[in-house]
Write a structure and sequence with these properties.
Low-confidence stretches: none
Oligomer: single chain
Number of helices: 2
Structural class: mainly alpha
Number of domains: 2
Radius of gyration: 17 Å
Strand content: 5-15%
Order of helices and strands: HEEH
Shape: elongated
């Protein structure tokens, strides 16, 4: 039978890191500029109409995905 306590500890650690990251992003977002324009990158989609605004951070999402994938890759190597 597999030892699930290691999986539980890993999930708690990942959850704590995500909560800390979320708090930091919220804090920086309230400061105004964010991460120096991170989130308004070329390739992000912004459509403004009279009563409608759509913002889809495509490039930002891809960069975050690549960064998190690399982080998980390097953390799983130990």
């Amino acid at each position: 039978m597999p030892d699930w306590s290691d999986v539980g500890k890993t999930l708690i650690l990942v959850g704590g890191v995500l909560a800390l990251l979320g708090a930091l992003l919220t804090l920086f977002g309230k400061m105004g500029s964010g991460f120096g324009g991170f989130g308004r990158l070329p390739g992000d989609i912004l459509i403004k109409r009279d009563n409608f605004t759509l913002y889809f951070p495509l490039t930002t999402s891809i960069l975050i995905s690549v960064a998190l994938s690399l982080l998980m890759y390097f953390l799983s190597k130990r």
